[in-house]
Amino acid sequence: MTKKIVSPCISICKTDPITGYCYGCARTNDEKKLWKSESTSEEWKLENLKTIKSRMQGWQLNTFEESYKHKISHGISLFKKKILEG
């Protein structure tokens, strides 16, 4: 059984109008669609994780890493958790 790669969405879904990258996960809209496709391989997802992390730096990368790690462990990003706790 192959382990599924968790989507890098951390619930900060706004696209930068200049770069076309999501502020939260640094994916393009096309990359987001590929993540949802059942035909997309886990290998592609692993490579895409490396690609999106290379687009980030400083606080954005730190915030993404922390929230994504929490999502993998607890099934929900830190941002979404804080919204739900309100």
Q: What does it look like?
A:
53% of the residues lie in helices and 0% in strands. It is an all-alpha fold and 86 residues long. The protein contains four helices and no strands. The protein has helices at 29-36, 42-54, 58-74, 78-85. The mean pLDDT is 94.
Query: Taking Cα atoms only, what radius of gyration do you get, to the nearest Å?
Result: 13 Å
Distance between the termini: 38 Å
* Largest sheet properties: none
Structural class: mainly alpha
Number of strands: 0
Tell me the strand percentage band.
Answer: under 5%
Indicate the low-confidence ranges by residue numbers. Answer: none
H/E series, N to C? HHHH
How many alpha or pi helices? 4
General shape: globular
How would you summarize what this structure contains?
By secondary structure, the protein is mostly helical. Helix content is 53%, strand content 0%.
Q: Which features would summarize this protein structure in a list?
A:
86 residues, mainly alpha, 4 helices, 0% strand, globular
Secondary structure blueprint with pairings:
Elements: H1 29-36, H2 42-54, H3 58-74, H4 78-85
